[in-house]
Amino acid sequence: MQNTIATGLGLGVLVAAATVALSAGQAGQTRATTAAPTFSKDVAPIVYGNCVGCHRPGEAAPMSLLTYADARPWARAMSRRVAEGSMPPWHADAAAGTFENERRLTSQEKEVIRLWADNGAPEGNPSDLPAAPAFADGWSIGTPDVVLQMAEDYPVAATGTIQYEYFTVPTNFTDAKWLQAIEVRPGNRALVHHVLVYYQAPAGVSAIAGVLDLNLQDNRLPPSTPGVRARQRGVGPRQLIATYAPGTAPQVFPRGTAMRLAPGGVIEFQMHYTANGTAGTDRSKVGMIFAKEPPSTEIRASQFMNTQFTIPPGAADYRVDTEVGFLQEATLWGLFPHTHVRGKRWNYVLALPDGTMKPLLAVPKYDFHWQTYYMFKEPVQIPKGARILSSAWYDNSVANRSNPDPAVAVRWGDQTWEEMQYTGLLFSAKSR
Fold first, then answer.
1. How many whole angstroms separate alpha carbon 269 and alpha carbon 198?
2. How open is the CA angle 141-143-145, to the nearest 5 degrees?
3. In the chain, which residues fall in CATH 2.60.120.230?
4. Which of 65, 273, 299, 389 could lock 55 by a disulfide, CB 3.0 to 4.6 Å apart?
5. CB-count exposure of residue 288 (10 Å: 0-12, 13-18, 19+)
């Protein structure tokens, strides 16, 4: 009896083992017959929709991803960067859909790229390849209606500190223009650190008078700041209309909005060059696309900052605050945080007149190399008397691998080894 039971148990174990083996074999066969993602059918649509604005010839990214031959050598790097979240570059801590210009991949898109790389990055059937996005030659916004360029090449020395330079270009606008999109194109990316483009309207024309209170806290430049015109930013007829910095995308205003440029103005390029050991030249330009008719909403641009700070040597988490007030009801469309290489994070809060604090924007891992104008998908309504409070934190310690010198105190300055606490903002108000 005991031998019979033992024999029966042994047969049961063998049958169970065989069943498990058969199931495993069937599962393996299923996995083997499931087609891996291919570039033509699965990866290209993701790359075309999220990456090739930068990853194409002539743009800021170091390599193109437009074709299979371009992308194949970078398959594992693409998978790694996508998995860790460093590509596409997006640094706001907010729910998906908060910002109009988010650069995000879905979890499904990330998985497609991972499986493609893990399975040898196959090309697939070329007939499955969608049409590549069409780009205007040299422009991301499309073919501009107007292109304004520096009058001549500017020579940049191989070494030394280069102060800000200013170049003006007449527009010859005989009537008001409604700016729908604008893009700054540096002539030499290796030498251009950043570009601010201002519109200098005729005397007596003001874009923001009566809307912003910039006198709340340190929204002024130190009179001794070398190379920078010591004037109140954002006050008077000089209006910031475009920005180029590492990672900054061209500005395209939401449908139904545009920025008004009064007739008879001039463009001013504020150029910040950085010597890189090789002398060269630059001749930057700006392209504009105009709305076909006046919009329902006029977008205005300004900025606020704190220039009165000193970051102690070795400080790993030093905080600098400032704020801007609103003298009338307004709508906030976007915010642009800017520091240099010691900047580590940002936070913005809307302080309402009743004392309520409303979070606006958090950038927990600010990256100097990817500076972004964060455009709200649903613009923020701001009541009269409200304030935007901004806080930036800096790492002046040895732990910051980008730190030029952790042994020195750091103050406001133009150069990358100095610092800024600067915010650009796009807003609209009822009055013009």
1. 7
2. 105
3. 146-429
4. 65
5. buried
pTM: 0.77
Highest-confidence segment of 90-94, 219-223, 280-284? 280-284
Residue 81 in tokens: 């960067």
Amino acid letter at 397? S
Give the three-state DSSP class for 170: strand
Residue 215: CB atoms within 10 Å:
12
> Is there a contact between 135 and 64 (Cβ–Cβ < 8 Å)?
no
**Phi, psi angles (nearest 5°) of residue 44:** -55, -45
Burial of 67 (C-beta count, 10 Å sphere; 0-12/13-18/19+): middle
Q: E strands along 5-160, which residues? A: 146-149, 154-156
Q: Do 204 and 237 form a contact (C-beta atoms < 8 A)? A: yes
146-429 placed in CATH 2.60.120.230: yes
Q: Which two tokens stand for residue 102?
A: 């988010």
> What is the per-residue DSSP string for 326-350?
ESS-EEEEEEEEE--TTEEEEEEEE
Which are the contacts of 250, defined by CB distance < 8 A and separation ≥ 6? 140, 141, 181, 182, 183, 184
Residue ranges in 340-388 assigned as alpha helix (H) = none
Q: Are 269 and 390 in contact (CB under 8 A)?
A: no
What CA–CA distance (Å, rounded) separates 296 from 256? 6
pLDDT tens, residue by residue, 215-237: 776 666 554 444 333 333 333 35
Sign of CA dihedral 219, 222, 227, 229: positive
CA 217 to chain centre: 26
| Dist CA 51 CA 70 (whole Å) | 13
pLDDT grade for 28, boundaries at 50, 70 and 90: very low
Q: Which amino acid is residue 84, in one-letter code? A: E
Residue type for position 32: A
Ranges of beta strands (E only) in 79-174 are 146-149, 154-156, 165-170
How many Cβ atoms from other residues are within 10 Å of residue 140's Cβ?
17
Better pLDDT: 355 or 432: 355
Cα–Cα distance for residue pair 34/325, rounded to 1 Å: 59
What's the rounded Cα separation, in Å, for the pair 141 and 181?
7
